[in-house]
Amino acid sequence: MSDVDYDVLIAGGGLVGASLACALGGSRLRVGVVEPVAATAAHQPSYDDRTTALSPSTQRIFSALGLWPELRGEATPIREVHVSERGRFGFVRMTAAEEGLEALGYVITNRRLGEVLPVQAAAQPNVDVLCPATVRTVTVRPDAVEVGVERDGAVNTLRGRLLVVADGAQSRTRGLVGVDADVRSYGQVAVIANITPERDHQGRAFERFTPDGPMALLPSSGGRCALIWTVPEARAEAVLALPDQDFLAEVQARFGYRLGRLLKVGARGAYPLAVTTAKRFQAQRAVVIGNAAHSLHPVAGQGFNLALRDVAALAELLMAADRAGEDPGSGTLLGRYEQMRRNDYHRVAGFTDLLVRVFSNAVPGLVQARNLGLLALDMFPAGKRGFLRYAMGRAGALPRLARGLPLEGV
How far apart are the first and last CA of the chain? Predict the structure, then answer.
């Protein structure tokens, strides 16, 4: 093996890339992270005021990495999930107590994740964070990948044994390694905001299906709720321009009064919704993870959790390869990774897309059937348990970190 600057080069130092750097921290692997936007920048997209719902498997990953104590204080537990459809009779209620769990998940701001993860990644003795820096070129050699990285107007070439593409759904690096992606727009926009209701949420999360699209209110800190309201693209601009009281009235009309009156709304943002699927999760000496490999509709809150299982699986394979003296960029290792992750992706993507399609269809017979289905799900614990296995990331085989086990035992 020829000399290289890094064993693993990570393109993208956002939440996913930083998590992988943390997972590989303290190992013998030399890790470089290339990130174009400083974590402290006001326009850093990974660290905005959006919230993320962490599944129990993601919480276990952060616990196994020693990160949970720094996140726990600002993570709001989800004690109950209530799913319903506006103007219909069906509903299902799922509680942590029924499952014997402390929580069905946790809600945390991306900003808090962004305050913890890159700092911890940079603190690892075997990790170099190059920021601001941008990947400009990728050249694959038989024994290494050569990455042209621009910093301060100059482009330098770094040699690595593996390039990890983790720079988001709009990834440019994905194309540089020769991986195409299919992108399908839902024709919808997610409008997000913090809302203060009259009543305490008591750890309850609500998923409300409306004719416009799904609306979620997630429990957050300070008695607030994080709103994710899906609207058609054609309505998004008008919704964002509404005065606060009119905006609250629109949300109230769709959500109802389960939390009493909605009193206050914070700054609003909007994000177009599309599903992005890389045609391959690997290329020669490169692997594609997180949103660069697969971005999902937010209806089931699975995107970041799926990405963290990518991190857990890849870190496990890389640590095992290092202990065995194997090449981290070998086609055999990357083939094993793709095989491990394909089933999880198809399962979660299918589940998410099914929810969107079933609850977006206004055919009368289907409307009645899906509401009967919700009632049946609420009445039969075994059905709810199966539903929760998908929602909490417990379906299928899980990597060690997602089971709360350290990588030292690999």
Answer: 24
Q: Say which residues have a Cβ less than 8 Å from residue 284's Cβ, sequence separation at least 6.
A: 140, 145, 177, 178, 331
388 located within any domain: yes
Neighbours of 224 (CB within 10 A): 21
Query: Is the dihedral angle over the CA atoms 203, 47, 171, 399 positive or is it negative?
Result: negative
- Residue 60, token pair as written in the block: 């276990």
What are the tens digits of pLDDT across the range 99-144?
Answer: 788 999 999 999 999 999 999 999 999 999 999 999 999 999 999 9
Tokens of 11: 């393109």
Residue 233 sits at φ, ψ, to 5 deg, of -55, -40
Structure tokens at 273: 């919704």
278 forms beta bridges with 181
CATH code of the domain in which 102 resides: 3.50.50.60
Whether residue 60 contacts residue 153, with contact meaning beta carbons closer than 8 Å, is answered with no
> Containing domain of residue 169, as a range?
6-183+274-409
Helices (H), 288-380: 303-323, 331-360, 364-379
Residue bearing tokens 């989800």: 78
3-state secondary structure of 254: helix
Whether residue 299 contacts residue 355, with contact meaning beta carbons closer than 8 Å, is answered with: yes
CA angle (187 as vertex; 213, 297 as ends), nearest 5: 60
pTM across the whole model: 0.90
Count of structural domains within the chain: 1
